[in-house]
Specification:
heterodimer; A: mainly alpha; B: alpha/beta; 7 strands
């Protein structure tokens, strides 16, 4: 893929990010920050790719740490977001009591 | 070599799978706009990530499986354990930590790419590598400092170093010069690894020095900004590796993080540069220290219970103190008692209540407070004059009327929850000490304010018990 194509993708993705996030209510900002945080864990793919060409102990170590860091970012990020958002979901109880008698 | 290799890097099937993956990210984020769908949205995004990871594992050219499997196993285990053990109150520092490791991964990948850069590496690859290295390293160290501050491992007070701005500026210039040297020698980079490592170290120092002087109250804005930075550095890594999934996902995070950062800064009525460079909150608490003990009214749980039980409407204003005391369940109990008596109870949530926008909502949701009762500041302020009692629990600066009345106050102009407009105010707080902003709160000394000096959790349970007895 040539550089200019990548640049086009970059610009479009930036606008998509702006458009999607502008609609999120303040209530959900913390889970949202946590979710986007998990999404940038995608750099782990870079770790997987560079580990493939790693040569010698130093490069293998760099690859290992990069993959481990990326995995923490992805797994931890999505799980923590899930825990937070779970708090908003389980709420089947009818709050009829709140009405004034 | 990869025995599973069925996909070509950059091949049509690979790119299509990556496209599916980032479409799921975008769709997942779109679902995040409503509390009911957000959890599913997160799972959808996680599914997208799984597709991206599996696709990459099937690429031709992957090797060193010991390194890959070991890294995946160790990282996943740490991530699982950490996210199961973390308390809801500790979310901001957890996000900081995850953000830091993401930045660290970017910097390391950039280093590896640099070592493997072919002679005559094209500039459209070398420049993204340098960008990823610098921003990744800044983000790693900056996030770790933010984590340490929020976790109280180091002082949350701003640490100012003499000549700070000059040192930062010199570091920045040094980093730029190093980048220019590397770019202009791109014909042969073999002798330049030392300079590249110096670049990583310089960026690390810069990350430390920029975040250290920032006070605890501003940390969420910093984390959000670093989150955006890590996203952009991931996108840069994507340019270097010609990986479309990295470019799109990194850019999404970069732009959404930028919006969040700006919204948070607006909620605090400050600009982002002001937060980064002013060392706010560090000014020796002038107002607090100078004045003698000012007269205030102090009450006990029983009096507070009476005031609340005979009110028509009560607005609870929760702050970070509530989170620290883990008082959300006790507060909900108190609200239940009031609602049983026919008192209308609402919660007024300041945009930066807790330590992040929306953090307080998460904590209260954890205690089963229906989110319809969580009212935003602009929504509830007009109702304040009609409110019988406002109960401020562990909140401070966000209720300080000085923000409205005193143009010289350091927080002048910051939007506040106008509790002093309510007919009566009860402030539950351990002491009269100033909040993060380091300034005295005029609210405590107003005529219609009663102070209840106690731990938020204990006070709320006591009030609930007293109301029950009435």
């Amino acid at each position: 893929m040539d550089f200019v194509t990548e640049l086009v993708i970059f610009v479009l993705a930036a606008f998509v990010g702006f458009a999607v996030i502008s609609k999120v209510p303040t209530t959900l900002h913390t889970p949202l920050m946590s979710q986007t945080n998990a999404i940038h864990g995608i750099v782990m793919l870079g770790g997987l790719i560079v580990a493939g060409v790693a040569d010698g102990f130093l490069e293998q170590l760099i690859g290992f740490i990069a993959i481990a860091f990326g995995a923490i970012n992805i797994v931890g990020g999505f799980m923590v977001t899930d825990r937070m958002l779970g708090m908003f979901v389980r709420k089947p109880k009818p709050d009829a009591e709140a009405e004034k008698p | 070599m990869n025995v599973l290799a069925v996909l070509e890097p950059g091949g049509d099937a690979t790119v299509l799978l990556y496209t599916l993956s980032f479409s799921l990210f975008i769709y997942g984020l779109m679902q995040g706009t409503h509390p009911r769908t957000a959890k599913n949205g997160n799972l959808i995004a996680a599914g997208g990530m799984a597709i991206a990871v599996i696709t990459t594992l099937l690429l031709d050219g992957l090797g060193n499986w010991g390194v890959i499997i070991g890294g995946l196993a160790v990282g996943s285990a740490v991530g699982v354990i950490a996210s199961l053990r973390v308390q809801m109150t500790e979310m901001p520092q957890m996000v900081a930590l995850y953000n830091g490791v993401g930045g660290g991964a970017v910097a390391l990948i950039a280093w590896s790419e640099f070592r493997h850069a072919p002679p005559d590496v094209p500039l459209d690859e070398l420049i993204p590598v340098l960008f990823a290295a610098v921003i990744g390293s800044v983000s790693f160290w900056g996030s770790n400092i933010a984590f340490a501050k929020l976790q109280d491992l180091i002082s949350t007070r701003p640490l100012a170093i003499p000549g700070q701005q000059v040192i930062n500026a010199l570091l920045l210039v040094g980093i730029l010069v190093a980048c220019i040297v590397l770019v202009s020698n791109n014909g042969d980079l073999s002798g330049y690894e030392g300079l590249f490592i110096a670049l990583l170290v310089g960026a690390a120092l810069l990350g430390n020095l920029v975040v250290l002087p920032i006070g605890g109250a501003d940390m969420p804005v910093v984390i959000s900004l670093l989150n955006a930075a890590t996203g952009l550095s991931a996108a840069a890594a994507g340019f270097a590796l010609d990986n479309v999934a990295l470019i799109v996902a990194g850019t999404l995070v970069g732009s959404s993080g930028t919006i969040l950062t700006m919204e948070m800064a607006t909620a605090m009525n400050r600009s982002v540069p002001n937060i980064l460079f002013s060392g706010f909150g560090g000014a020796p608490a002038a107002g607090a220290g100078s004045g003698e003990e000012r007269p205030h009214t102090s009450i006990g749980a029983q009096d507070a219970a009476i005031k609340l039980a005979y009110a028509d409407s009560v607005v609870i204003v929760p702050g970070y103190g509530l989170a620290v005391a883990q008082a959300q369940h006790a507060v909900k109990e108190m609200a239940n008692e009031l609602e049983k008596r026919g008192v209308e109870v609402n919660y007024a949530i300041h945009p930066v209540a807790g330590r992040m926008p929306g953090h307080m909502n998460v904590l209260l949701a954890e205690a089963d407070v229906p989110y319809e009762k969580l009212r935003e500041m602009d929504d509830i302020n007009p109702e304040m004059p009609r409110t019988s009692v406002a109960v401020v629990i562990g909140a401070n600066d966000v209720t300080n009327p000085a923000a409205k009345n005193d143009p010289d106050s350091p927080i002048a102009g910051m939007p506040i929850i106008e509790v002093s407009e309510a007919q009566q105010v009860i402030v539950i707080k351990r002491s009269l000490s100033p909040g993060f902003a380091g300034i005295d709160n005029d609210l405590f000394y107003e005529e219609n304010t009663s102070m209840l000096f106690d731990d938020a959790k204990k006070a709320a349970s006591e009030i609930a018990a007293e109301i029950e007895k009435l």
